[in-house]
């Protein structure tokens, strides 16, 4: 074992042995060989392939170091003496005073360091159980990301649009980004249609990661979920000429519910529609009250049937 490898074992720790180290190196060599084969097959540069893999891989968990008694003493010393860390000779003076501490003082700083370390470890990311607190945290972080987006918009001349797809029914689908990105979302009908697919795909990927299932096939999911028949396919000429028929009523209800389910798993709240602020309906005739199809007059039903293809729902951006 050379000096550099020996130093590596000391730095990494966590039970790293020569045998384990050799297995890691062997896996790395196999990995490099497979990338080389892929490079030859696709006629792409190695660096290009590696850059894509780096951008898409899951970040490795970072090991948080414990706070030591020296760290605690050092922090308090600079704060107490009102000296900057960069002041010449300050670090040396601090170290000299630390060396003069007696056993009781050292134990005191050690106990405080252990308490600080424990509090820091308890702040490791984990699911927030309270829905109210989860919403508050989400909105808080979205505000911070918005600031970053605005900065990058100026410095890098880019636009952003982010979809927020919750995996639990307690939260609603939302979106945010730069003003241009949000304006594009509001005017682009296709984005409304991918929400449900994205939700199901995310659930499948999460299950695969947790080894509940072994493989995710996205194309089938897309075909099953997003390819909702157009209104013209669902409503025959007879339906349009007979707006009061049971067949027309059932097909309109089904079509509207399918469009609504692209943004949420809930039922359309017809009775409380004008008391809620979560959703907006686009394309519904302005002179027709939004309600259950069967409650409309014959003339209003005809207006709905002739305009059904242009009707869709959207999530209001509640994070603003």
Automatic annotation (TrEMBL):
Superkingdom classification of source: Eukaryota
SUPFAM superfamilies membership: GTF2I-like repeat (SSF117773)
InterPro entries, sorted: GTF2I-like_rpt_sf
Protein's name in the database: Uncharacterized protein
């Amino acid at each position: 074992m050379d000096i550099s490898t020996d130093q590596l074992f000391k730095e990494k720790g966590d039970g790293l042995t020569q045998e384990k180290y050799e297995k890691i190196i062997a896996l790395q060599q196999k990995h490099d060989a497979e990338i080389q084969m892929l490079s030859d097959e696709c006629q792409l540069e190695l660096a290009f392939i590696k850059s894509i893999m780096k951008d898409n891989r899951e970040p490795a968990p970072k090991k948080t170091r414990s706070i030591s008694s020296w760290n605690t003493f050092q922090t308090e010393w600079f704060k107490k003496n009102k000296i900057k860390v960069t002041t010449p000779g300050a670090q040396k003076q601090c170290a000299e005073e630390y060396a003069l501490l007696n056993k009781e003082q050292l134990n005191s700083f050690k106990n405080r360091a252990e308490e600080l370390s424990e509090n820091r470890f308890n702040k490791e990311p984990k699911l927030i159980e309270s829905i109210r607190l989860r919403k508050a945290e989400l909105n808080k972080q979205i505000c911070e990301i918005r600031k970053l987006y605005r900065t990058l918009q100026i410095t890098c001349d880019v636009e952003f649009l982010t979809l927020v797809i919750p995996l639990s029914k307690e939260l609603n689908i939302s979106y945010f980004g730069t003003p241009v990105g949000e304006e594009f979302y509001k005017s682009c009908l296709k984005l409304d249609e991918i929400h449900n697919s994205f939700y199901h795909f995310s659930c499948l990927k999460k299950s695969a990661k947790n080894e509940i299932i072994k493989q995710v096939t996205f194309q089938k999911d897309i075909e099953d979920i997003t390819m909702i028949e157009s209104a013209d396919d669902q409503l025959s000429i007879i339906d349009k000429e007979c707006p009061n028929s049971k067949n027309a009523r059932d097909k309109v209800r089904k079509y509207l519910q399918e469009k609504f389910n692209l943004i949420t798993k809930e039922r359309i709240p017809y009775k409380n529609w004008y008391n809620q602020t979560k959703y907006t309906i686009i394309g519904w005739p302005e002179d027709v009250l939004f309600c259950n199809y069967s409650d409309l007059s014959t003339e209003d039903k005809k207006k709905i049937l002739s305009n059904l293809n242009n009707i869709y729902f959207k999530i209001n951006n509640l994070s603003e």
